[in-house]
Amino acid sequence: MIILITGVSSGFGRATAQKLAAEGHTVYGTCRRNVEPLPGVKYIKAEVTSEEDCRAAVQTVLDEQGRIDVFINNAGMGIGGPLEFSTIEQARRQMDVNWLGMVQFLHYVLPAMRAQKSGKIICISSIGGLMGLPFQGLYSASKFAIEGYCEALRLEVKQHGIKVVVVEPGDFATSFTASRDSVSDAAAYEAYPAYERSLKSIEHDETTGLKPDVLAARISKIVRCRNPRQSYIVSTLEQRLSVFLKAILPGRWFSAILASYYKL
Ligand SMILES: NC(=O)c1ccc[n+]([C@@H]2O[C@H](COP(=O)([O-])OP(=O)(O)OC[C@H]3O[C@@H](n4cnc5c(N)ncnc54)[C@H](OP(=O)(O)O)[C@@H]3O)[C@@H](O)[C@H]2O)c1
Asked: Which residue's alpha carbon is at the smallest distance from atom 44 of ligand 1?
């Protein structure tokens, strides 16, 4: 299959590109910096906030292969901190990278898939896209945006043979933690004393989290599956349980559980 995946310089993107290429697929991966190349992966330079880069990346695959069977929207980053102290520029950047980047790619991928009358779109959301996480509010908002967009898109494109799958990972050990842009204002720590201990606990959960190969294996299964589910949570049992609890508990009870977990 002809596969285009964004953000293959590290973490999920790198592990997934490696696995899919090893399985014999033709894999194109976008990245914005030079990385040690993976065998079988064709690299395309793209900054996902640049519409021109997104257009050109899609066009490169179409020019060389004439089709895109699977598009995996993976590139993303996190901005942490109390929402009151997060800047408007940070809010804009969080949405630009995590949500608008995906929208820009899909704007150019969708016409090709519609013409083919087939295609699979796999978007990496997060458990943070299913519940608003304290001190990760901008990040959660960007992943909720992915969830809402994909829910609508799935209904629109089904008639054209295009499937839309959302993957919600829990905590994984990748470069995501080190790349997080966190509010570091002393005033933010003073006004929200829980911020520091929450951030430490978030970082601990991530750095001791699952390995990206686990997610890559799941994505490989989704790529092969003729009739994939609409969404897949890939996480520890505890994190899957939290999604279940949110669905069944009164909002106030679930908020109390989250507040206790994040040491608020
Ligand atoms: N790790 C977790 O616990 C976790 C949990 C749930 C969801 N996720 C999601 O999984 C996805 C992959 O993250 P990861 O954990 O694998 O983190 P990662 O190792 O930091 O990988 C992120 C990838 O996205 C790329 N990227 C970031 N900003 C970009 C931009 N403006 N333009 C182009 N590429 C950009 C990075 O490129 P550079 O190397 O150039 O920065 C890198 O290739 C993200 O969408 C993230 O939100 C991660």
From this structure: 76
126 sits in which H/E element = none
Domain containing 154 — which CATH number? 3.40.50.720
Q: Number of structural domains, the chain? A: 1
- Of 252, 207, 206, 222, which is closest to residue 20 (Cα–Cα)? 222
Residue 147 alpha carbon to ligand 1 centre in Å: 17
Per residue in 26-85, pLDDT tens?
999 999 999 999 999 999 999 999 999 999 999 999 999 999 999 999 999 999 999 999
DSSP annotation of 96 reads I
**d(Cα 78, Cα 99) in Å, to the nearest integer?**
12
113 CA distance to ligand 1 centroid (A)? 25
Q: How far apart are CA 64 and CA 73, in angstroms?
A: 20
Catalytic residue among 19, 108, 125, 231: 125
DSSP SS3 for 122 = strand
Residue (of 1, 2, 97, 4) closest to 44 by Cα position: 4
